[in-house]
Amino acid sequence: MAEELLIPENTSKAETYQALIPQIKALIEAEKDLIANLANISAALKTGFNFFWVGFYILKNEQLVLGPFQGPIACTRINLNKGVCGAAFQQKKTILVPNVDEFPGHIACSSDSKSEIVVPVIKNDKVEMVLDIDSDQLNDFDETDQKSLEVLMALLSNSIE
């Protein structure tokens, strides 16, 4: 298992994802523990892109409960019908929010969060958890993030037993 990420400098967002995804894939294929994998994915994305906050909310008892993350402290529990995470959960699709202040029902865990992307992790047609990434910049996420993170979450889903 690699203990260090090789992150290219001065490259496009797409090139950074192209470099990171195979490294993350190798990490999660070599490890069967879900929490360890979620922690490493969060750390890799935070390190690779310097996002404000990266983490997972895991479905437990009909709520999304905070899992491994990188960044400032966060909301511990999110109801399935609340916020961007709840919307991604219920709609079973990625939600990209250019300005969180314009998203109805946005949950402000931090006033420093300006834009957000949430990607569901789906196994056997059931959302098991969501990947939540916040930026302290407006309009920081785009189709490149969406496609790349969806590929990464599909890899994660395939590793869940």
Proportion of residues in β-strands: 25-35%
Percent range for helical residues? Answer: 25-40%
CATH domain class: Alpha Beta
Total helix count? 4
How many structural domains in the coordinates? Answer: 1
Give the neighbour order of strands across the main sheet: 3-2-1-6-5-4
Q: What is the chain-wise order of helices and strands?
A: HHEEEHEEEH
Q: What is the first-to-last residue Cα distance?
A: 20 Å
Q: Which spans have pLDDT < 50 for at least 5 consecutive residues?
A: none
What is Rg? 15 Å
CATH superfamily: GAF domain
CATH topology: Beta-Lactamase
CATH architecture: 2-Layer Sandwich
Shape: globular
Keywords:
161 residues, Beta-Lactamase, globular
Description:
With 161 residues, the chain is α+β, with helices and mostly antiparallel strands. The protein has a single domain (13-159), classed as Beta-Lactamase (2-Layer Sandwich), CATH 3.30.450. Helix content is 37%, strand content 25%. It has a 6-stranded antiparallel beta sheet with strand order 3-2-1-6-5-4, sandwiched between helices. Helix 1 (13-29) packs antiparallel against helix 2.
Write the layout of secondary structure elements.
Elements: H1 13-29, H2 34-49, E1 53-60, E2 63-70, E3 77-79, H3 83-91, E4 95-97, E5 115-123, E6 126-135, H4 143-159
Antiparallel strand pairs: 1-2, 1-6, 2-3, 4-5, 5-6
Helix pairs in contact: 1-2, 1-4
